[in-house]
Every structure is written in structure tokens, then in C-alpha cells.
Amino acid sequence: MHSTASDGTDTPGQIIDKCARLNLVLSSVTDHDTIDGQREAICAAQEKRIKYLTGVEFSVQHTGELHILGYGVDIESAPFKGMMDELRASRIERVHLILKRLAEQGVPITFEEVERHAKGNTLGRPHIALTLIERGYSGSMQDAFSTYLNENGLCYVRRRKLNAKEAMDLIHSAGGVSVLAHPRFIKTDDMAALVAGMKRDGLSGIEVYYPAHSDRDAERFAAIARANGLLVTAGSDYHGKMRDFTAIASEKRTSPLLEQTVQLLLDTYAM
Fold first, then answer.
1. N or C, which terminus of the chain has less Cβ within 10 Å?
2. Single pTM value for the model
3. Which residue has the higher pLDDT, 7 or 211?
4. Pairing relation of β-strands 231-234 and 205-209?
């Protein structure tokens, strides 16, 4: 689940409140490349007396999209916090570069306007998109991204990403487990070989159950997980109003492998 700390529209506290109302056994806010929302989520979970798992989602270097979830990380780990600070700084630099390109296209918006939409959270393209809508340059989030901010947009700027091994090593250095997120979206000619290679580099699990995964997808990814001795996880990828096609706990499929993983996470990593 993603909060206002990255590209969601609910605060971490609001997300945890919804999880508590749904009586979830275990939940985790996994913002993109930041742990800025973790302290609020932890406090909210303690207040609601529900089990919580610290989390983060790294976008890593790959042809196309490849994301790695980190669960159960120690958010006070010095090396981990240091890298989070570096990634935050690179995001700010990226925003400045995008604004420069927008101005060159005759679409001038200011850093202060974008920062206001972020409300103190990690700056990103969604906040630029909200500013473009507010100023009348775009009609919707989709329009803002497709015209200016996506990879094929007029003002796209590539951002700094760790490679997969660096991300997994960082997660493990902070005592967490690394999970390959929504594998259906990964461009590869051989998923089994990709996962086997990542397992050698330290991968802990695969997100098998995900709203965009068909039953056939889930069966294939579960088989790959079993073949590599990996954990099996599930997630909704909730973003609030930013992506209104998925809701918290919308992924309801389960299996003995998932139940085993949840119990392991509860016993070893949850707070």
C-alpha cells in the first residue's frame, strides 16, 4: 500500500485506520524509495493494536519495470537511512530538471507549487501532475503523465535507481526480506531464469497474489516460488484516489504457501 509519503492519496495513519476497520491480520505501507511514512504508520498500528510490517518498494534498474519490496526492515539502520536520504535528494534534483524541461515547453510551474502539493512528503511526478492540473495545463493525472511525465512524455527525466542486487543487499542489511513485486509487469523472456538469478543474489520471495495477476499467473509464479524455495506474498498495491481501481484487501486469494509466509512474517518481523 502506498501513502502520501510517495504516490498515494491517504496518509499512513488513514491507511492503517482502514486496515484496522477491515480486521487485517497483517499490513504494510510500502512507499516508493522512501520510509518517510513508516513512523506514522507504526504509531497508528500501535494505537489501533494491529500487527504491522515495515515496508518499502524499490524501483530498480531493468529494461522496463522491476520493483522489489522490502518487508520488516529496521528503519533506524544507519546504512539504510543513508541510502534513503540519497534517493530523496535524487528525487528533488529530478523534479528541478523536469520543471526546467516544462518551462522550455512553455509550461512554467514553480518548485514551490509542486512542493505545496507534496505537503512535506517525498517529491515526485504525481505532485508535478497535480500542479499541471491546478494550473490548467492538463485535464487529468493521466493526461499530465502521458503528455509530459511518462517515459514517452515531452519532459521525462530518468531517475536514479539501484540495481536489483544493491536493493536486496540494502534490505537485508536492515534485517528485512526482499520480495519481487507484481512479476506480471516485468519484461523478460524467461521469468524462471530471472527469478533463479535473483535468488542467487538474495531474493527472499515473490508477490504471487496481486489484483492484476490472473489465476493462471498466480499458479505460474507460485510454481516458480516453490522451485526456488521462496516466500509467497500478496498485496493490493493500494494508492488511494491515485489509482481507484484497487482497494485495500482487494486481493483475497490464498494458499498454504501464503499462509506459511504470513505466519513467518508475524512471528519474526511484525510489530
1. C
2. 0.87
3. 211
4. parallel
